[in-house]
Design goal:
Elements (H helix, E strand, L loop, with lengths): L6 H11 L16 H29 L2 E2 L5 E2 L4 H11 L17 H14 L1 H20 L2 H13 L3 E5 L15 E4 L5 E11 L9 E9 L9 E7 L1 E3 L5 E4 L2 E6 L10 E14 L5 H37 L23 H33 L3 H37 L10 H8 L9 H12 L6 H17 L5 H24 L4 H6 L1 H29 L5 H17 L2 H10 L3 H4 L7
Parallel strand pairs: 3-6, 4-6
Antiparallel strand pairs: 1-2, 4-5, 5-11, 6-7, 7-11, 8-9, 10-11
Helix pairs in contact: 1-2, 1-8, 1-15, 2-4, 4-5, 4-7, 4-8, 5-6, 5-7, 7-8, 7-9, 7-10, 8-9, 8-15, 8-16, 9-10, 9-11, 9-12, 9-15, 11-15, 12-13, 13-15, 13-17, 15-16, 15-17
């Protein structure tokens, strides 16, 4: 069942909904004319569907191999596809032109990233981790380091990783033991062990640039004493080419539930040469640029795998003949009707599509905020966009992976028993997507971040601005042609406001109560964000119809949106009531009674 990239949906979102042509005066958007964007979408779909997607299932079965010399080879075809991708310039799509990037808007690069990830999430993680390394190096690197490393990283000639986790500590990075000892030449000797390092070793690029958290000797305990270092596999020579091998290696590969095509490594550093990024003891501050980039990427991953699994389920449902429609045969000339006639199958497929299309609209809107935060002409717009980006990052990561898992689960259910076998792709998608709810901070951690850090940040400026954004949209559109969708947004936002006030009144006095309801609050936030996107999409679709378009895409969009309103949006009230229940029931049972 071949992968099909969501080209038409991105055409709609970029042109009809967000109308990115209105930003043609901004850096990056100047080169993103409609015909250029159309070509990127079409060529991106062609590459991901024809080159990358065929590697997904074989790569899952073959996995990565660690050799006696600590080298790692990826599944057959991965290296060739990676080199083809680099040759075509895809990794540089949104890169800074100062360092050889194409400088196109992040919102356009996001569309390509979803296509690549949907085609093969394990393959897409290799350039995805490099994007995060570029983000951190751009902020924390010296001019010399940026000039040396960024051109090769942006081009995809070299790759990057992030090294946080150690065997004894995951989320609690204050416990890390990796150490950095100053050397006489101004560099540091890095020693320690890191685990779960995605793309930590492979044979695609001539160098792998590891960003490693470590503690300089004598640094304060806890997270305040952590620094960030650039530790390349090969130390660049005087000409900037890979030279002497650094004293680091891959000591093992994790045996995982999914994403078998990506090398998840145990990395050992033994007095490896590293360069400090930023100031000493401020490593987490810089690493968060990489982590936030990765968290948005994981949200995209949840959406992309969900889309791929949904495509497979739809094709299966069309072909699978089983039973008859309750209202009488729909295909009397065949021995049975396709399972699309059954209401429960239609429920799963249409609810999935409503979640995916709403989630894609949300993700694309957030990606646009990243562009505006960087390139908007006035400070107020940049500030607001940056606030939105910070506020919504945990929502993108957690909500899109929660719902991506649901879509993937329902897609497997549509396959019936066939989905539980390895003859169909449903089981691989289920195995691949499950990690997205865990890594880059579990979804519970994302919810705590939203409630404990993002809401009160700067006196609540970001969340109040987001509420004002929605209120303004409602005021402008509640009497328009998509009034039903706007009412759904208005009602859901009111519930989110209710939940926010409840947190303000109860969270300070009882932190457990706020934490117990945090994931439900995040899901309520996610529902509001999708409701906002669906209101925008419905208005754009209806406008096209009113203008005389006979393209069935627009009518289909409204029909799918109705499923969102009637069958998904009512979950908002349940999330609100669960978060208001507080923590008493969760702590009533004594620890020794578990």
């Amino acid at each position: 069942m071949p992968y099909k990239a969501p080209v038409r949906d991105y055409q709609f979102l970029l042109n009809d909904v967000l109308n990115i042509a209105q930003y043609s005066n901004l850096k990056g958007f100047q080169d993103a004319s409609p015909d250029v964007v159309q070509a990127i979408l079409e060529e991106g779909a062609k590459f991901t569907e024809e080159v990358v997607a065929p590697l997904n299932a074989p790569g899952d079965k073959e996995g990565c191999v660690l050799h006696a010399d600590h080298s790692v080879t990826a599944p057959k075809g991965y290296k060739e596809a990676y080199l083809q991708m680099v040759e075509a310039g895809w990794p540089a799509l949104g890169g800074d032109p100062e360092y050889g990037g194409q400088g196109l808007p992040h919102v356009v690069a996001t569309a390509y990233s979803e296509m690549l990830t949907g085609a093969s999430s394990a393959f897409a993680m290799y350039p995805g981790l490099t994007d995060g390394a570029v983000a951190a190096l751009s902020v924390g690197g010296t001019d010399e380091l940026k000039a040396l490393y960024l051109p090769k990283l942006i081009a995809g000639e070299w790759s990057g990783t992030m090294n946080l986790t150690e065997p004894h500590c995951g989320t609690d990075l204050g416990l890390l033991r990796s150490k950095a000892v100053p050397d006489s030449d101004g560099t540091y000797k890095i020693t320690g062990q890191k685990i779960w390092i995605s793309a930590g070793e492979h044979d695609f690029t001539s160098n792998i640039c590891h960003l490693v958290l470590a503690r300089i000797e004598g640094a304060p305990a806890g997270v305040k004493g952590i620094s960030l270092f650039l530790v390349p596999k090969f130390i660049p020579d005087a000409n900037g080419n890979p030279g002497e091998r650094n004293s680091l290696h891959c000591a093992g590969l994790e045996h995982k539930m999914g994403i078998h095509g990506n090398s998840t490594c145990v990395m050992i550093y033994e007095d490896a040469k590293g360069w400090l990024l930023g100031n000493a003891h401020e490593g987490l501050k810089i690493m968060f640029y990489m982590m936030n980039n990765a968290r948005l990427g994981v949200g995209l991953q949840g959406l992309a795998i969900g889309h791929a699994s949904h495509v497979a389920a739809v094709e299966f449902a069309k072909d699978r003949l089983q039973g008859r429609a309750l209202t009488g045969p729909k295909s009397p000339g065949k021995p049975a009707d396709s399972i699309l006639v059954h209401p429960d199958v239609r429920r799963m497929l249409l609810e999935s599509r409503a979640l995916l299309e709403g989630g894609r609209g949300f993700l694309t809107w957030v990606a646009l905020q990243a562009d505006l935060a960087k390139h908007a002409e006035d400070e107020a717009t940049r500030e607001k966009a940056n606030d939105f980006l910070s506020l919504l990052t945990p929502v993108v990561k957690a909500y899109l992976t929660e719902k991506g898992l649901k879509v993937t689960q329902d897609s497997m259910q549509v396959h019936g028993g066939s989905g539980f076998t390895e003859h169909f792709p449903a089981s691989q998608y289920m195995r691949d997507i499950r990690i997205t709810l865990i890594y880059e901070g579990t979804n519970g951690v994302q919810a705590l971040d939203l409630v404990g850090r993002k809401l009160p940040s700067k006196g609540g400026r970001a969340v109040m601005a987001y509420f004002a954004e929605i209120d303004a949209y409602v005021a402008d559109h509640e009497a328009g042609s998509a009034a039903t969708f706007v009412k759904g947004l208005k009602d859901t936002k009111a519930r989110l406001m209710d939940g926010t006030l409840w947190l303000m009144q109860n969270g300070m006095g009882n932190p457990d109560a706020a934490a117990a309801g945090s994931l439900d609050y995040l899901c309520l936030f996610g529902l509001t964000a999708l409701a906002y996107s669906w209101a925008q999409q419905a208005a754009a679709a209806q406008a096209a119809i009113d203008a005389g378009s006979t393209d069935p895409f627009y009518a289909d969009k409204l029909k799918v949106g109705r499923v969102f309103l009637e069958r998904i949006l009512p979950e908002a009230e349940a999330h609100l009531q669960k978060m208001k229940a507080g923590s008493e029931a969760l702590f009533a049972l004594e620890d020794d009674r578990f």
